[in-house]
Amino acid sequence: MAKLMQLCVYAHTKLEENCHRMQCVQVARILKALAEPTRLRLLCLLSRFEEICVCELTEIMELPQYHISRHLSVLRHLGLVVDHREGTRVHYRLAANNQFLRDLAEVLKEAAAQCPRAIRDVELADKVLGTSTDAVVREIGAQPAG
Length: 146
Known about the structure:
mainly alpha; Arc Repressor Mutant, subunit A; 68% helix
């Protein structure tokens, strides 16, 4: 519980710093968008992996493509993610020029260590993307499965 309290204090401090640089209305829009679990899961994954294709996200998150695309569109319109096409595939990554998002990604990485769904998403992403689960899971503070 103490770790969660520290995380809340850290998040509040970072958000307060950024609120001075951004309009509070924009910060509120972002936080409102992140109140939706699918969008939060998407940002957690994109903060962990450099770039992910929509088709890979559907497999990782076990959700239909239209559902993933709709939520990515909301995140893109808020300036939190950017996309690019490679043939028929659309790849997404976190927006690099957004300091608020970089700070938020730090908070999400800490919170993901406490969330079984986020840990499962990382494990599935590892299988789909062919990355090393042990290193990623250790990074977010959990024990490797198996």
